[in-house]
Amino acid sequence: MRTxxxxxxxxxxxxVSVRAQxxxxxxxxxxxxxxxxxxxxxxGTQRLSxxxxxxxxxxxxxxKSAAPAKELTxxxxxxxxxxxxxxxxxxxxxxxxxxxxxxxxG
Length: 106
What we know:
Number of strands: 0
Structural class: mainly alpha
Shape: elongated
Order of helices and strands: HHHHH
Strand content: under 5%
Helix content: over 70%
Number of helices: 5
Distance between the termini: 96 Å
């Protein structure tokens, strides 16, 4: 019994001394860890995967902000609107082509 108590005390002392010797993370390490957490949450929110996630994470961790969305030109807005209308009407083939032609002209 005495040997068991002595062994337990020795194990406890070794465990405490090992923990005490581990250095605390530096401010830079803490900042990097926080940035990793934030970027990871953002990538998850955007449901990114594969190459898109890898690219996003690289840019995010480097501190690069996301590129602002480009404003569409009037022609692009018209194209987007006509395309959405054609899709909503489930037009295909020649019907879609004719619809798009008329929509983009008018």
